[in-house]
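The instructor's notes for this session suggest beginning with a concrete chain rather than abstract definitions. Hand out the sequence below and ask the class to guess, before any prediction is shown, which regions might be ordered.
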Amino acid sequence: MSTTPTRPVGAARWRFWEPLLWLAALLSPWLLKEHALLINEVAIVALFALSLDLILGYTGIVSLGHAAFLGLGAYAAGLFAKHGMPDPLLGLAVATAVSAVFGLLCAFTILRGTDLTRIMVTLGVSLILFELANKLDGITGGADGLQGVVMGPLLGRFDFDMYGQVAAWYSLAVLLVCFLLARRLVHSPFGATLMAVRDNPLRAMAIGIPVQARLVVAYTLSAALAGASGALLAQTSGFASLNVFSVERSADVVLMLVIGGIGWLYGGVLGAVVFKLLHDVIAGITPQYWTFWVGLFLVVLVLVGRDRLVRPWTWFGRGHRGDSR
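After discussion, reveal the predicted structure:
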C-alpha cells in the first residue's frame, strides 16, 4: 500500500490568473498614483474581510463584533509607535500578537454557544472595548482619538509619503503574505478538519477531531489577522479613533463577504474592492443616500445570485444551480 500522503479535498493549485492578479495589485500604486490612498484602504479592509472569512466561511463561527480585534490592533500599533518604537514592522508584529492573545482569551467564550449567543458575545466584546477606549482617555485619547502617531521609515529606507504610495505597497505586501498563509492553512489537513467542523460538528467529534481546539485555533488566527489590519490602519493614517470598534465596521465586513462570497479567500478581497468602489463612487454622487444604493445592490445580489449578476446570459439558461464561486 502506498504511503504517499493524500492531498486534502479542495487543495486547489495556483490558477494562471492568480499571479497576474497579485502582480497587478502590487503595481497599482505606481500605475494609479492618484488613487494610492484608496488602494491602501482597499488592502486594509480586504485583510479584515479575509480574517472574518477564516472563521465564518471555514468554521461557521458567526461574529458581529469582529471590529474588536481591528480596533485593538489599531490602538496597540498606535500606542507602541508613540511610546515604544516607531518601526512599522515591529509595531505590526506587536499589534498582531496582542490581538492574537486577546482572541485566544475570547475564543473560550464562544465554545458552548450557538450562533445567536456567539453573535451577542462577540458584539458585547466589541462594545466593552469601545467603552474602555472611550473612558481611558489619558491613554487612548478618548473621543478625540489617538493622535500624533508618527511612523518611522519602512525597512529603514522608505518614508511614508503624502500620496500614500509607500502605505499602499506596505498594506498590499502584508495582505499578500497573510493571504498566502491563510491559503496554505485552509488547503492543509488542518483546514479540512475546520470544514468538517463547520459542516457537522457532531460527526467531526465522532471521528476524533478535537472540535473545541480547532475552533480556538481558528478564532485566534482570525483575531491576529484582524489585528494586523487594524495596525495597518493606524500606521498608514497616523490616527486611531473609537470608530474602529463600531458595529458598523463589523457589519460592513460581513457585507463584503456577502458581496464577494463566503468560504472563498478571494471573496473577502473581491468584496472589499467592490464595496469600497461603490462607497467611493456613490458617495461622490449622492453622499446622503449612498447606503440606499449599496443596500439595493445587496438585495439584487441576493435575489438574482452572484453568478447570474456577473454573467447575465445565464439568466435564461437551463440547469442553473445557484450561486457559483
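Then share the key points. Confidence is low (pLDDT under 50) at residues 1-11, 318-325. The chain has one domain: 17-245.
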